[in-house]
Amino acid sequence: MNYRHFYHVGSFADVFKHALLVTIIDALQQKNKPFCYIDTHAGIGNYDLTREETQRSKEYLQGIDKLLHAQDPLPDLKHYIDLINDYQHHGDLRCYPGSPMIAKHLLRPDDHMIVNELHPADFNSLKLTLGKNPNIHCHHRDAYEFLPAILPPIPARACILIDPPFERTDEFSAILRCLHYCFQRFPTGIYMIWYPIVSLQHRPFTREILREKLAPTLVSEFTLTAIPQEKSGIIGCGMVILNPPWKIEKIIGDITTYLFTLFKKDNSGHYRTELFTNEINQRDSN
Question: Active-site residues: which are they?
Answer without folding.
Answer: 163
